[in-house]
Structure formats: structure tokens, C-alpha cells
Design brief:
With 439 residues, the protein is an alpha/beta fold. The chain has 19 helices and eight strands. It has an eight-stranded mixed sheet, sandwiched between helices. Bound molecules: guanosine-5'-diphosphate and magnesium ion. Pfam families: SRP54, SRP54_N, SRP_SPB.
Length: 439
């Protein structure tokens, strides 16, 4: 890095690296905390080993001590393990979409079936039918019927005399004849996995070939969830998870164990006994909860914001002095990207309101992404000395960034315009507010 850039980044790094020694204490604490959150012992062991390997040798960000750096990495890893993407039900393009609810008794299958049916009906315009395939206890059928009534969704049942498989078969025919586009099968559970239950579920699966098989996982569940999840997944190939009873005060580490076994997404979260107590899954929030180091996480977040602010402030100061290089442009782009829309940001700058309203955000962001790719394909020397960019260098940069020489030239023209603008504003007394300070 050139001197100027390295100066800017000195505040971001330079506290040394993570070592076995400076990580150990904190990793021990993390391990304890995960076990307290009921994450399975083996899962914790593997997890810690992986984090250790990954973190070893990483630069410690300034404003953080090595312990905090470890927690930051752990938090990122848990979030990733929980699954970062928001996943929706896979509806069939045409024909009837089928969902099967499975899980141990009392984990919340029946409640979740009704909650999900309600959401599909109200928010997604589907026509769902609920099917009572838990025919062991009459109370189970009644429970589903009561829930169905409350959300005005029909419940198909043939009573306790008919086998679950036969109920499923006739329910499918009923759905076809009556124009339902989504069918949710509420199945029986047991207190423990048993072969009879698994055989029944396998038969139903073979018959209806569900588009989704959702396993309910009680947030209050303990260490043995690993075996439960493993057998359900082995026998049925679960496609998604429903995390229930997250409104309780358990930290819900069981879901981390289940994710690490099934690798299927958490599609819904149950937050109470009422029908509307259903949410989508927020991996980062869940990671906070499982890790249980709230104060430390807040501290790390604040430190990070402060560092972002400092880097951007430095770069802004340099710009006002008229020494605005392509490196500064890159820093600013990355800052803008972090803050969301370009137009939205410019509205906050005095005098830029009108210009901001003329910015087509999608297009501006597209251009910016391209420019960023071009900048990243340059060497540091090139970014610091744009004058050296002759044809052969431009060619290489265009290739490297998957753009054209024309794109590179356009970006350079944009840079020159920005540079002039910065000089002008600097001349006006450097009144342009710092970008990061406007968050
Ligand atoms: P199933 O045996 O798997 O069908 O479980 P149920 O749907 O009958 O739920 C068992 C109990 O847990 C019932 O008393 C539900 O009201 C309750 N329950 C289900 N989901 C939730 C939830 O998200 N939060 C809370 N607090 N209770 C729940
Ligand atoms: Mg039930």
C-alpha cells in the first residue's frame, strides 16, 4: 500500500494477529456459553475447532482486543451456520403444493400447521387445506379443527377410525375436487422416535410426495435433539425447519445442532401460542441469542462503526485538500455501498436534495458496482497515480474486471469530475459533511 492508504488503514489493523495463545481464554468462554445454550456437545467441539483454524493468524482490528476479535469471528460463523438466506416455501408452478409437518410430540406441529396455513391464506393468497393425519388421539383432531375454524381454513379429517395414510390419500382427492392449491398435513408425533411412527411417516411421504417436509424443533430442546433430527432426516429427508417456542427464555442452541446435521433452512419461527405468532428467521439475531454475549457484541459493533467513521473521515479530509485519488474514490464507494442507496444518502447533503431526486438508484448502483470492480482490478500504484493508465494497462484492467476499455474510460472521466467537484467544495471551506457521520 502507498503511504496515504496505509495511513488510513493503520487504524483498522496493526494490533497484531490472533494466536493460539491470545485466543484460548475467549474460546473457552465461548465453548461454555454455547453449552449453556444447549448446543450439542459434539457440535460445539467441531465448531470451536473450525473457528480456531479459521481465526488463527487473522489481523486483530484496532479498537478491539484479541478476545473481542475472537467473539466477532465466532458470531459471524454462528450466523453463517444458521443460514444467511431467507427461504420461502417452494410452491409448485401448477398443481397442488403439499407440506408435511413432522416432529416429536408437543414440539408444535399442529400449532405451526395452522399458523402457516393462515399466513399462506392471508399474505400469499393461497387456498390451503389442513389435513388431520394425527389420528392417535381424538383431542389432536379437535385441536386442529378448532384452529382451522379460527382462521377460516377447512380441516379434512376422517376421524380416529381411519388410518393416517388413508386419510392422506382421500385428502388429496378432496383437495383436487375442491380446488385447493396447498395442502398441509399435520402428522402424529411420539415422545421419542420409534419405528412405527417413522414407517407411517415414510408411507405418507411416499404417497403425497410433499414439496416440503418441515421438522418442528422446540427452542427449549436439549442435547438429545441431535439424535432426533438425525433420524427424522435420515428417514424422511427433511426440507426445512420450524423453530417453535422461541418466545420462551431458552437460548435455543438446539437449532444450531439441528442445522449442522440437516443443513436445511429454518423457514419459520414460532413466537407464541397465538395464530399470528409466526415470524421469519433472523440468523444474526439468533446468533446473538445463542452466543449470549450481548454486551460484548454491542461493544464490537460500536467499535466497528467508529472505525468505519474514522476511515471515511480521513478520506473526506484528504479530498477537501484536493488530493483525491482513485483509492479515495474506492473508499467512498465502499462507504456508500454500506449505507444503502446513493440517492437516499445525497438527500442528506445540503444543496444536493434536487440532484438526489434525479438519481435513478438502480442505475446509479449498477454503474457504481462496475466502477468498483474496475477500481479493484487496478494495482495500488495505479489507483494512486491515475496518470499512468495507458492503453495496455486499461486493457488488462478491463479484462480483470469483466468490463470494457470504454467502461474504464467512463470511470476515469467520472473520477475527474469528482475530483474537480471536491476541489471546488474544498475551496468553499470544506463544508461538505462527512459521509459516515450522517448515518
Ligand atoms: P404437536 O404435538 O407437535 O402438534 O404440538 P402442538 O402444536 O399441539 O403444541 C404443543 C403445545 O405447545 C401447545 O400447548 C401449544 O399451544 C404450544 N406451542 C406451540 N407453538 C408454540 C410457540 O411458538 N410458543 C409457545 N409459547 N407455545 C407454543
Ligand atoms: Mg399435534
Amino acid at each position: 500500500l502507498t503511504e496515504r492508504m496505509s495511513q488510513a488503514f493503520k487504524n483498522l489493523t496493526g494490533q497484531g494477529k490472533l494466536t493460539e495463545k491470545n485466543m484460548n481464554d475467549m474460546l473457552k468462554e465461548v465453548r461454555m456459553s454455547l453449552l449453556e445454550a444447549d448446543v450439542n456437545y459434539t457440535v460445539v467441539k467441531d465448531f470451536i475447532a473450525r473457528v480456531k483454524e479459521k481465526a488463527l493468524g487473522e489481523e486483530v482490528l484496532s479498537a478491539l482486543n484479541p478476545g473481542q476479535m475472537v467473539v466477532k469471528i465466532v458470531h459471524e460463523e454462528i450466523t453463517e451456520l444458521l443460514g444467511s438466506e431467507e427461504v420461502e416455501v417452494h410452491y409448485k408452478k401448477s398443481g397442488i403444493t403439499t407440506l408435511m409437518m413432522v416432529g416429536l410430540q408437543g414440539t408444535g406441529k399442529t400449532t405451526a400447521s395452522a399458523k402457516i396455513a393462515n399466513l399462506m391464506k392471508k399474505k400469499q393468497g393461497r387456498r390451503p387445506l389442513l389435513v388431520a393425519c394425527d389420528v392417535v388421539r381424538p383431542a389432536a383432531i379437535e385441536q386442529l379443527q378448532t384452529l382451522g375454524e379460527s382462521i377460516d381454513v377447512e380441516v379434512f379429517t376422517l376421524g380416529v377410525e381411519t388410518k393416517a395414510l388413508e386419510t392422506a390419500r382421500q385428502a388429496m382427492r378432496y383437495a383436487q375436487e375442491n380446488g385447493y392449491d396447498t395442502v398441509l398435513f399435520d402428522t402424529a408425533g411420539r415422545l421419542h422416535i420409534d419405528e412405527e411412527l417413522m414407517a407411517e411417516l415414510s408411507d405418507i411421504k411416499a404417497l403425497i410426495q410433499p414439496d416440503e417436509i418441515l421438522l418442528t424443533v422446540d427452542a427449549m430442546t436439549g442435547q438429545d435433539i441431535v439424535n432426533v433430527a438425525q433420524s427424522f432426516h435420515d428417514q424422511l429427508s427433511v426440507t426445512g425447519l420450524v423453530l417453535t417456542k422461541l418466545d420462551g427464555d431458552s437460548r435455543g442452541g438446539g437449532i444450531l445442532s439441528v442445522r449442522s446435521i440437516t443443513h436445511v433452512p429454518v423457514m419459520f419461527v414460532g413466537l407464541g401460542e397465538k395464530i399470528d405468532d409466526l415470524d421469519v428467521f433472523h440468523p444474526s439475531r439468533m446468533a446473538d441469542r445463542i452466543l449470549g454475549m450481548g454486551d460484548m457484541l454491542t461493544l464490537i459493533e460500536q467499535a466497528q462503526e467508529k472505525m468505519d467513521m474514522e476511515a471515511s473521515q480521513k478520506s473526506a479530509q484528504r479530498m477537501m485538500k484536493g488530493s483525491f485519488t482513485l483509492n479515495d474514490m474506492l473508499v467512498q464507494f465502499q462507504q456508500i455501498k454500506k449505507m444503502g442507496s446513493l440517492g437516499g444518502m445525497m438527500k442528506l447533503i445540503p444543496g444536493f436534495g434536487k440532484m438526489a431526486s434525479q438519481i435513478d438508484d438502480a442505475r446509479a448502483e449498477g454503474t457504481m458496482k462496475k466502477s468498483e470492480a474496475i477500481l479493484l482490478s487496478m494495482t495500488d500504484y495505479e489507483r494512486e497515480n491515475p496518470a499512468c493508465l495507458k492503453a495496455s494497462r486499461k486493457n488488462r484492467i478491463a479484462k480483470g474486471s469483466g468490463t470494457s476499455v470504454a467502461d474504464v474510460n467512463r470511470m476515469l472521466a467520472q473520477y475527474e469530475k469528482m475530483q474537480q467537484m471536491m476541489k471546488m467544495m474544498g475551496g468553499m471551506g470544506g463544508k461538505m459533511p462527512n459521509m459516515a457521520a450522517m448515518k
